[in-house]
Amino acid sequence: MKADGMDEKGLSRRQMVIGAGVLAAGTALARFGGWPGLAQAKDGTTEKWPWPYEKLDPATTAELAYQEWYRVFCGAAVISSVFTQLREKVGEPYRSFPVDSFVFLEGGLVGWGTVCGSNAGANIVANLIIGPRIAGADAGHQIGADMLQWYSDTPQPVFMPKEPRVKTELVKTTAESPLCHVSVGKWMQASGKPLGSPERKDRCARVAASVAYHLVELLNDWKDGRYAPASAWSPAKEFGITGQPNCVECHGADIPAPPMAQKT
Amino acid sequence: MKADGMDEKGLSRRQMVIGAGVLAAGTALARFGGWPGLAQAKDGTTEKWPWPYEKLDPATTAELAYQEWYRVFCGAAVISSVFTQLREKVGEPYRSFPVDSFVFLEGGLVGWGTVCGSNAGANIVANLIIGPRIAGADAGHQIGADMLQWYSDTPQPVFMPKEPRVKTELVKTTAESPLCHVSVGKWMQASGKPLGSPERKDRCARVAASVAYHLVELLNDWKDGRYAPASAWSPAKEFGITGQPNCVECHGADIPAPPMAQKT
Q1: ipTM score of complex
Q2: Which of B9, B193, B196 sits opposite A8 (nearest CB)?
Q3: Contact at CB, A196 and B83, closer than 8 angstroms
Q4: Got the DSSP string for B9-56?
Q5: Is B44 close to A95, i.e. CB distance below 8 A?
């Protein structure tokens, strides 16, 4: 059975997801009989998936994300760009979701350079709308993984807003990582622009816009029933530890071998 | 003015936060006149901070997080441990928050080994309850940073549940990083236990419980009006880039110098 994205067995992804969903539901019912708070939430509207979704225009969404970056920064900008439109087109539960709380995703979580907030925001949106894999569907989880892979592999920023604050094209760099520190660092190195420069800020605003654009492409595909997962990165299965594909970038040639389960 | 946790100026944190809040509010109103979706949300209850909070027992919260790890894994377990209790004690807006969507935080975001989900979950809880820094208060942002620092510096797991699934004490390791890959990797190296082992799973469940425990300590302090920030890590100001304190662990002796703004 799959456990926290870290399984080592040969079951198909779908088998694992269904298994986990059924088991989790039973266990939760048994364990939380005494917690009325949880039971009430389960009777509400926000933990029934999928949330109603209407297809959005990727370019409009990207323009919104670009504008919102200058108000709420990367992670919340991606969430806001999708939810602001769905608040209008659909209403609840989008109106009740506290988008602005996610400002803290800036700078890779309060400036600590961990996952780029745009990636975190995209994962939040996909999993709020489609639902978590333990609810029996795995497209949200898969779209989240696709976004990390696409972000890592793509020369960024892709999207050029109609009226950018910085009027020029910007250097594009491929992060080979979903981490803020690595992504921003490589771009700063290639551009020669400091962190506090208008160019770096506009670069990050355009990255958030690019992520919002591609996220909506995938969500629209999912809505049309023609979404197919694009990424197959499964480090737990392949390497016995969670992680990113760029091992040598931190480890050099000296990549430690994790303790592995004995094959039975 | 502070921008995405990445300023380089000498303004005090509080000055920056207040400045950003006032400016952001004005800009948002001007920009989003045509977006009724956002305006409606602003009139609702979920984007008014702080959310009503009642002090919780840290040990009870940790026990809940430990149990919930086996259902929803690290990030959602931390959120659930706090919100399940507040759904009962307070009600809304906790009942409407879709906790289970955050299962994807597992394994450092869908297994990619970025930020440990427990840390992401703790930041989400603090910023949902207290609000984002752009709303004029910075304690949520600060508690989030404190949690990353505490997680990195503390031999983990701290918390021992009353009835652990693995009956023994577990090796404790200090991650010196908030990242899943680094934290789990160091523990696996010290313990010799593989990713799929019951011990590694119980270790991560106890880490989630430890994070939930400390998070509630800080939230209770904040509720009592005696919270004081414990961390002062500001890499953007000190080093000109977002990042973590353990530079040499990835870079070795060859730490690149980011382009810096010219002093005026």
Answers
A1: 0.87
A2: B196
A3: no
A4: S---HHHHHHHHHHHHHHHHHHHTTT-HHHHHHHHSSTTSSSPP----
A5: yes
Q: Do B100 and A260 touch (CB under 8 A)?
A: no
Q: Which amino acid is at B101?
A: S
Preferred mutation among B48, B90, B94, B101 to probe A, highest tally of A CBs within 10 A = B101
A193 CB within 8 Å of a chain B CB:
yes
Residues 6 or more apart from B83 whose CB is under 8 A from it?
A: A37, B94, B97, B99, B125
Which residues of A are less than 8 Å from B104 in CB distance? Answer: 123, 126-127, 132-133, 140-141, 144
Work out the minimum CA distance from A10 to partner chain B, whole angstroms: 13
* Measured CA distances, B214 to B70, B161, B173, B220 (Å): 20, 14, 17, 10
Cα A181 from Cα A106, distance rounded (Å): 11
Tell me how many residue pairs between chain A and chain B have CB atoms under 8 A apart: 363
End-to-end Cα separation, chain A, in angstroms: 16
**Gap between the Cα atoms of A203 and A209, Å rounded:** 10
Asked whether the beta carbons of residue B235 and residue A111 sit closer than 8 angstroms, the reply is yes
Helix%, strand%, coil% for chain B, nearest 5? 55, 0, 45
Per residue of chain A (264 residues), give pLDDT as tens: 345 655 444 333 333 333 333 333 334 333 433 344 443 445 567 899 999 999 999 999 999 999 999 999 999 999 999 999 999 999 999 999 999 999 999 999 999 999 999 999 999 999 999 999 999 989 999 999 999 999 999 999 999 999 999 999 999 999 999 999 999 999 999 999 999 999 999 999 999 999 999 999 999 999 999 999 999 999 999 999 999 999 999 999 999 999 987 665
Q: Which residues of A touch B230 (CB under 8 A)?
A: none
